[in-house]
Specification:
It is globular and about 55 Å long. About 6% of the residues have low confidence. The strands form three sheets. Strands 1-4-5-7-8-10 form a six-stranded mixed beta sheet, sandwiched between helices. The protein has a two-stranded antiparallel sheet with strand order 2-3. A two-stranded antiparallel sheet has the order 6-9. Strand 2 and strand 3 form a beta hairpin. The chain is an alpha+beta fold. The longest helix is centred in the N-terminal third of the chain and has 15 residues. The protein has one domain: Trna Endonuclease, Chain: A, domain 1 (3-Layer(aba) Sandwich), CATH 3.40.1350. It has five helices and ten strands, in the order αββββββαββαβαβα.
Length: 186
């Protein structure tokens, strides 16, 4: 861009790709803080099971993990208790306007969700279609049934619109998924 007096301004595209896919988790984390602060429920993000192999440790404040390995495959993102029931769920995002790719859910995660159901817990996915700006609550029972009855590699948006419940975006809590649990289970 040319400015008066001969100044030239160059604009660079400073795009930060570091936290892609983290907006949904931020919204859920904010909702969980709201739930805990108001004594509604206790739900936490699970830590990723890592083994730290190498750390640069010039000082305690400047320690940097340089190498780490997964101890075991991670199951789901969140768990906790609400109204006396154990809840366990995963948060996923998709940029697609037409479907949610099933390769975003690993077989061990499906087995984990099924195990939660077998033990009487509440298991589900929260899926956000970022391009459509739609967030859905999908019961694990419906997810498992879909994966058992079809060979598809993705779940069409029509399935979400028919079998899942849309979660409107609010200020407090941002993603009120416990309201959906109230509607479905209590």
């Amino acid at each position: 861009m040319l400015y008066p007096n001969g100044f030239k301004k160059n604009y660079k595209n400073n795009i930060n790709y570091g936290n892609r896919g983290m907006k949904l988790e931020e919204d859920i984390n904010e909702s969980n803080i709201f739930y805990q602060t108001h004594n509604i429920g206790i739900i936490h993000k699970k830590p990723v099971p890592l083994t730290i192999a190498r750390v640069d440790f010039p000082s305690r404040r400047e320690a940097v993990v340089r190498e780490a390995y997964f101890k075991t495959p991670s199951t789901t993102d969140y768990n906790g208790i609400y109204r006396g029931k154990y809840i366990d769920f995963d948060a996923k995002e998709s940029k697609s306007k037409t479907s949610f790719p099933l390769n975003n859910i690993h077989p061990h995660q499906l087995a984990h969700l099924e195990s939660i159901l077998q033990h009487g817990g509440i298991a589900f996915l929260i899926v956000r279609f970022t391009t459509l700006d739609e967030t859905y609550f999908l019961k694990a029972e419906d997810l498992l049934l879909f994966t058992q009855q079809t060979k598809r590699k993705s779940i069409p948006i029509s399935f979400f619109r028919e079998h899942a419940i849309i979660i409107p975006y609010k200020i407090h809590p941002r993603i009120d998924y416990l309201k959906v649990i109230d509607e479905l289970y209590f």
